[in-house]
């Protein structure tokens, strides 16, 4: 069965009946290595072919679909068709010409990529795979078509697929043959997975992942791809991510994705999409101040301003609602610390219940790192979604729960007003970390975290991540005589890496206790290493990932962030005695999975977590 993007159930409603039939035939009668897109805009010009097919051997096929009957067509020439419709006569483009133009535009775009064209021979510089186009006439049989000389004269017969050639009863091979016949030539060499990804990169700018090499051109315009040498590795969402992102559609959606599986990526895509769909403001919520800052930067890079999408950390948003609706804040004398923060949340909940704060005021609500939200917060967030769009997206990974009680409270999404059943997707593939880092983090965490039973909505709560297969250096765990030695070692490694070309802002030190950060900070200052201590105090709330400084960040605040190099000092003091071993294990798991390429941990004394790490490291392949 071929893969249709978006999924059939999410686009069937906007399809014509002929398109629906064709989509079902294509899905059913083509094999799993066919990719199909329905009505997905292409390139910067946002061309809208009805269907695009992509296959390693058969190449690219563009299809326009028309539900016309013979009696509908009043006149036809190479450029236009005059149709008799309920609203009178209407002139439209000749669909074959339209399909040809789309194909030509795609062709021109793809020919700019040296890895997609023939490198030698008579056709040097031309696409290295077949491409073709056609028109599907879903209500005209071949016999009717052939009986109409006028149609045949302007619609090349072999580029037309007729009603009876796409009946359900047509066998798979005959149906496929009809498609292949759209193209008069074929090449021996199938497209490689890398080439298929490059084709998607060119066609669909919205699923591009900005690589470091292209970071100066976040969304490379079509004209520019010809002028710059494209890197060999162009990254796009994988097919599951793309299908999910494009199929989110209406209603509530829940995505359970392991660390580094692209949840945030999908959230940003969804924001872009919703910003075009709704005029109401869009709300993005997360728990962390630092993650909120990263999300803002990511959205900004995609050209989405704060006027369209408001990114807030949950408690900041609650405070803002009280101010906006002139509700009194709790008294600071009565409540302190977390009790104060909770009292703010309660006032907001009461404000919504009393209709002082209007529910349903956001066109969409998207929650990142939802595992850190208490049930009543999720309920509140769900109430804020416009009941017309019902656009609620909840992303979570139970393995990263940091702020819950000892064990995450069991609750049912249904009771919170979140329709998760049948609307939950699991993403297992981790793209962020090297296989070595991920294997260590999971081996360590699975020993300590207790997987809980799936709950009533069939949501797995501890998903084993799978690596996307990138390899790198083995994580390091180094014993030193004292914490002072740890800080000196760390400073020396930072300097060494920087001298070898690693930018300061691509390195982070993730710590568990404030005293550790103080010593590390002092040591870095002495060594004149630029260092930014994120969330050091209330006034340093905003962090700039691009500023040329090493980031010093708590394990809690590191959630949702990532850095090529991560140092974790003070393993000798873990688990922290003031928390539960399980909670501490989740924290260290989160910290370790922030490292994209290199992970260095240090300790100055034996500890339970140190021992576990050593065992896990020893079991890794050399
Ligand atoms: N298909 C992909 N191909 C290449 N890189 C990808 C792909 N999907 C995601 N990534 C990269 O993997 C990294 C992690 O993605 P992202 O931050 O969206 O994951 P996440 O699920 O939100 O992680 P976490 O829960 O740990 O914060 C990012 O650098 C992202 O660009």
TrEMBL record:
It is an enzyme of class 5 (isomerase). InterPro entries: DNA_helicase_UvrD-like_C (IPR014017), DNA_helicase_UvrD/REP (IPR000212), NERD (IPR011528), P-loop_NTPase (IPR027417), UvrD-like_ATP-bd (IPR014016). Its EC number is 5.6.2.4. It comes from Stenomitos frigidus AS-A4. Residues 240-326 form the UvrD-like helicase ATP-binding domain. Keywords: ATP-binding, Helicase, Hydrolase, Isomerase, Nucleotide-binding. Residues 426-536, 539-603 form the UvrD-like helicase C-terminal domain. It catalyses: Couples ATP hydrolysis with the unwinding of duplex DNA by translocating in the 3'-5' direction; ATP + H2O = ADP + phosphate + H(+). This is DNA 3'-5' helicase. Gene3D superfamilies: P-loop containing nucleotide triphosphate hydrolases. It holds the Pfam family UvrD-helicase. Residues 17-117 form the NERD domain.
């Amino acid at each position: 069965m071929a893969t249709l993007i978006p999924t059939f159930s999410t686009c069937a409603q906007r399809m014509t009946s002929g398109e629906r039939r064709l989509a079902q035939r294509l899905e059913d009668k083509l094999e799993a290595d066919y990719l199909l897109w329905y009505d997905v805009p292409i390139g910067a010009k946002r061309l809208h072919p009805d269907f695009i097919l992509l296959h390693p051997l058969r190449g690219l096929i563009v299809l326009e679909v028309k539900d016309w009957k013979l009696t509908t067509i009043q006149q036809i020439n190479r450029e236009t068709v005059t149709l008799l419709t309920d609203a009178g006569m209407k002139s439209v483009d000749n669909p074959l010409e339209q399909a040809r133009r789309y194909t030509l535009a795609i062709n021109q775009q793809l020919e700019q990529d040296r890895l997609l064209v023939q490198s030698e021979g008579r056709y040097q510089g031309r696409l290295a795979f077949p491409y073709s186009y056609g028109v599907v006439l879903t209500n005209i049989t071949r016999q009717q078509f052939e009986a109409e000389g006028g149609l045949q004269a302007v619609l090349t017969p072999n580029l037309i697929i007729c009603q009876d050639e796409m009946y359900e009863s047509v066998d798979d091979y005959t149906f496929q043959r009809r498609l292949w016949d759209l193209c008069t030539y074929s090449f021996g060499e199938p497209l490689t997975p890398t080439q298929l990804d490059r084709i998607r990169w060119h066609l669909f700018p919205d699923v591009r992942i900005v690589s470091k090499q292209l970071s100066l051109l976040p969304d490379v315009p079509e004209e520019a791809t010809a002028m710059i040498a494209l890197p060999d590795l162009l990254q796009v969402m994988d097919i599951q991510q793309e299908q999910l992102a494009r199929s989110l559609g209406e209603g509530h959606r829940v995505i359970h994705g392991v660390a580094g599986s692209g949840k945030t990526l999908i959230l940003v895509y969804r924001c872009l999409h919703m910003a075009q769909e709704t005029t109401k403001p869009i709300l993005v919520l997360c728990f962390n101040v630092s993650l909120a800052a990263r999300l803002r930067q990511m959205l900004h890079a995609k050209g989405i301003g704060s006027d369209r999408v408001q990114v807030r950390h949950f408690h900041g948003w609650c405070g803002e609602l009280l101010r906006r609706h002139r509700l009194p804040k709790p008294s600071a004398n009565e409540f302190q610390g977390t009790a104060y923060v909770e009292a703010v949340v309660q006032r907001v909940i009461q404000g919504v219940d009393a209709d002082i704060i209007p529910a349903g005021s956001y066109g969409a609500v998207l929650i990142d790192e939802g595992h850190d939200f208490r049930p009543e917060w999720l309920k509140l967030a769900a109430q804020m979604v416009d009941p017309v769009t019902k656009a609620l997206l909840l992303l979570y990974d139970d393995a990263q729960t940091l702020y819950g009680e000892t064990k995450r409270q069991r609750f049912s999404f249904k009771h919170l007003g979140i329709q998760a059943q049948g609307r939950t997707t699991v993403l297992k593939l981790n793209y962020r970390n090297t296989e070595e880092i991920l294997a260590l983090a999971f081996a360590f965490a699975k020993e300590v975290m207790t997987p809980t039973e799936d709950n009533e909505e069939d949501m797995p709560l501890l998903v084993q991540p799978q690596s996307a297969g990138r390899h790198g250096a083995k994580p390091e765990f180094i014993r030193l005589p004292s914490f002072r030695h740890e800080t000196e070692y760390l400073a020396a490694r930072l300097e060494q890496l920087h001298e070898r070309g690693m930018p300061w802002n691509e390195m982070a030190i993730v710590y568990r206790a404030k005293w550790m950060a103080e010593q590390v900070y002092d040591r870095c200052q002495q060594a004149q290493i630029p260092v930014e201590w994120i969330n050091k105090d209330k006034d340093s709330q905003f962090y700039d990932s691009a500023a040329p400084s090493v980031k010093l960040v708590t394990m809690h605040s590191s959630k949702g962030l990532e850095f090529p190099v991560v140092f974790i000092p003070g393993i000798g003091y873990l688990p922290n005695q003031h928390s539960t071993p399980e909670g501490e294990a989740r924290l260290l798991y989160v910290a370790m999975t922030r490292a994209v390429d290199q992970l260095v941990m240090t300790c100055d004394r034996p500890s339970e977590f140190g021992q576990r790490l050593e065992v896990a490291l020893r079991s890794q392949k050399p």
